[in-house]
Amino acid sequence: QVQLVESGGGLVQPGGSLSVSCAASGSISTINSMGWYRQVPGKQRESVAVIRSGGITNYADSVKGRFTISRDNAKNTVFLQMNSLKPEDTAVYYCNLEVGRTILVNYWGKGTPVTVSS
User: Fold this and answer.
1) pLDDT category, 1, cuts 50, 70, 90?
2) Which of 20, 54, 90, 110 is most enclosed, with most CB atoms within 10 A?
């Protein structure tokens, strides 16, 4: 059983900063990537930032230069530092873990809300 426990998030004013973290535990095989996705009501979940094995990162165009993803491999924890937040960043942020070699399995956290508002 794999569990993803997210922490952080909350309410922040536009232009502010916030960080979220996600710790993975349980029977974890080869980790391909860890990442953050977000979703607002009525819209599809979208990728925000992903960090792959070897440290390769990918960001959504909308967050490039403002968000930074990092990972503590020893603790199977992924972090997302969000700076210069905008109201359009408001969403529920979900942690994702992809594991496996020939068969890929994705795990999701329960989500943590981020609200950017004055």
Assistant:
1) confident
2) 20
